[in-house]
């Protein structure tokens, strides 16, 4: 079942990569894709049921909200710069990932009693 969430993260990274290349933001595109790569890592290391559920919820939330804001600031709001979305959205995503990554890490250490 993790396969669906792997696919969501890979699709989101490709969409982010394509938008960044189209707008000529190569210096920021790898920073914008990095949260999706870390999501793949979180999904891979999650073994305990709590860790798997946490990783899946974080993946669904970060992919949907991250892509929404990226598409909104890039195509809908022309007043906001493209660099704004490629700089501040990954900062927000990394903040969420650090907190949830800590939860996944601690949940993997749980023992089933």
Detailed description of the structure:
Helix 1 (2-22) runs antiparallel to helix 2, helix 1 (2-22) runs parallel beside helix 3 (49-76) and helix 2 (26-45) packs parallel to helix 4. The protein is elongated. It has one domain (2-108). The model has no long low-confidence stretch (mean pLDDT 85). It has four helices and no strands. The protein has helices spanning 2-22, 26-45, 49-76, 82-108. Helices cover 85% and strands 0% of the residues. With 113 residues, it is mainly α.
Provide keyphrases for this structure.
4 helices, elongated, 85% helix, 113 residues, mainly alpha
Topology:
Blueprint: H1 2-22, H2 26-45, H3 49-76, H4 82-108
Helix pairs in contact: 1-2, 1-3, 2-3, 2-4, 3-4
In short:
The chain has 113 residues and is mainly α.
Strand count, sense and barrel status of the largest sheet are: none
Tally of alpha and pi helices: 4
Helix/strand order, N-terminal first: HHHH
Number of strands: 0
What class would the helix/strand composition place it in?
A: mainly alpha
Give the tally of structural domains: 1
Q: Helical percent range?
A: over 70%
Q: Ranges with pLDDT <50 over ≥5 residues?
A: none
- How much of the polypeptide forms β-strand, as a percent range? under 5%
Distance between the termini: 24 Å
Q: Characterize the overall form.
A: elongated
């Amino acid at each position: 079942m993790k396969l669906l969430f792997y696919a969501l993260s890979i699709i989101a990274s490709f969409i982010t990569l394509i938008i960044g290349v189209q707008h000529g933001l190569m210096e920021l595109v790898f920073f914008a894709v990095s949260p999706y790569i870390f999501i793949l890592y979180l999904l891979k290391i999650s073994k305990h049921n709590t860790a798997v559920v946490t990783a899946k919820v974080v993946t669904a939330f970060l992919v949907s909200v991250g892509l929404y804001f990226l598409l909104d600031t890039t195509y809908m709001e022309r007043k906001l710069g493209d660099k704004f979305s490629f700089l501040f959205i990954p900062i927000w995503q990394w903040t969420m990932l650090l907190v949830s990554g800590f939860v996944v890490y601690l949940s993997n250490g749980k023992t089933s009693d």
